[in-house]
Amino acid sequence: MAVHPPNIPIRKDKEKDMRSLIGGSGRVAVAILLLGALAGCGASGAGGHVLSEDLSEPLNGATAAKVDIHCGPGHLTVDRLAGGEQLLARGTLQYLENQPLPTRTVDASGGQATLTLKGSGSASSGFRWPWLACAGGAFEWQVHLNPKVQYDITAHSDGGNVRLDLGGMAVSRLTADTGGGNIDVALPENAANLGVTARTGGGNVTVEVASGTTGNNTIDASSGAGNVAVRVPGDIAVRVHATSGAGKVSVDPRFNRTDASTYQSPDYDGAANKVEITLHSGAGNVTVNSR
User: Taking the CB of the first residue and of the last residue of the chain, which one, N or C, has fewer CB atoms within 10 A?
Assistant: First the structure.
């Protein structure tokens, strides 16, 4: 008589354990691959050593300028040009040795200038593998602008920090954004009818409104996960729209709460000089203070 081996069913929990083991091994392998790539770029850099390019653009009679800066994955600082030089802009643009030089274009006509600076590492939209971000913060751009010129400024980094110290300057519009770094903005004294936008994918945002601000001004600041904070002078009317997905919202008690997310000065509607502030964070804290 033939003897057949007994049918021993595979327990479902063992099947689950096997799938978990295989899936876990796959995830570990991917993690090791990613960490290895990131460690490799940390050791040698995605594009080699850091080099510097000097920036020096003549004023050529400009009284107003549009400045558009895309620094790629590095840090960016924009501030005032000191020394009374007859330049529109001066500075230092760093880049990695295995990448092309930063590009610059200048158009000037009738007292109006347009200056565009762009790094070779500027990212396109869409998915990016982690090792493509290896250069994030590996270099820095410093741009100093002539304080006698009225500016419209766009400042962008793919993932580095963006710092704009605009004290002593004349600015009509400012847009600053970064893929994941921090944004720090100090607005100019005696600003008038100024529009400000500051956005980061995950870092912190701080905006300091200077004294003497007049007219109708707007600030729109947001972060995907970091903290967002604005400080305003105590003598200007303010309306605040503040929200956070998971963090705390803290607004100076001198502003009356008018609904779930809106606060404003008692005299806001009739004030000649005012600032409307819209703030949001996906997970961080949102704060508005007076000084």
Answer: N
